[in-house]
Amino acid sequence: MNPPEQIFAVVLAILIAIPVHEFAHAMSAVSAGDDGPRRANRLSIMPWDHFDPLGAIFCLMSSIFGIGLGWGKPVMVDPRALRNPKWDMCKIAAWGPFSNLLLAIGFALILRSGVTGANEMLTFILLVFVQVNLGLMLFNLIPVGPLDGAKVLVAFLPDRQAWEFQKFQEQWGMLLLFALLTLGRGLLNILIGVPMDALMGLLFYGYGT
Fold first, then answer.
1. 3-class state of residue 51 by DSSP
2. In whole angstroms, how far apart are CA 70 and each of 24, 35, 59, 104, 133?
3. Number of C-beta neighbours around residue 65 at 10 A
């Protein structure tokens, strides 16, 4: 595929992956007792309800240059409104990456069904959809800073360690995330590239590569 077609495929994938990711957070929060996301109109899969303007620009830049970071508008959750704050926050955080895994599986099944036939463009777009969703899932599961992985990890730590971890992430999480994105290419490959290759092998060939 030529560069414009590649950019189109990535942008289209992002326009699906991020709204579904944020919708999953919102739906989980509402089901756990916090009606704030409903009032904020986050029970939607429309892109304009979930994209932060600056984050959307960075999404576009990353799709053009192949590097970078984009983000959606975070779903605000009030832990005081949740029935079981510790575990509900864990489930709310986990549902975002899990929704991307479900999307990746769905698009992979469509590809494996052969319905795209000899249509190379449609095949390429669906393949990009799978890759983008797996990448978004794996990236968000990194337990650093504002990423979902940090919120999931907190639920499995003893109370004191969880509190200390949260305080550390509040102070240093964004800096660690920035350092990881700018300096940690080898580590990112281990955290995202290697498991993505394994998952692609599992989805398309029935085994991890």
1. strand
2. 18, 27, 4, 19, 13
3. 9
Nearest to 91 by CA among 136, 18, 155: 155
Convert the pLDDT of each residue in 48-86 to its tens digit. Answer: 899 877 666 766 666 565 555 666 788 999 999 999 999
Question: What is the distance between the terminal CA atoms of the chain, rounded to a whole angstrom?
Answer: 24
Residue type at position 190:
I
How many residues are recorded in the chain?
209
Q: Which residues contact 132 (CB under 8 A, 6 or more apart)?
A: 10, 13, 14, 17
Query: How far is 168 from 119, CA to CA, in rounded Å?
Result: 50
List pLDDT tens digits, range 160-197: 999 999 999 999 998 998 888 788 778 888 888 899 99
Name the CA dihedral angle for 49, 147, 177, 196, rounded to a multiple of 10 degrees: -100
Task: Calculate helix-pair angle for 194-205, 120-140, nearest 10 degrees.
Answer: 130
CA-CA distance, 62 to 70, in Å (whole number)?
Answer: 7
Q: Which residues pair with 106 in a beta bridge?
A: none
pLDDT of amino acid 116:
85
* pTM flag (> 0.85): yes
The tokens for 159 are: 């109370």
Q: 99: Cβ–Cβ under 8 A, 6 or more apart, which residues?
A: 20, 21, 23, 24
- Judge contact between 162 and 154, C-beta under 8 A: yes
For residue 165, give the amino acid letter.
Answer: F
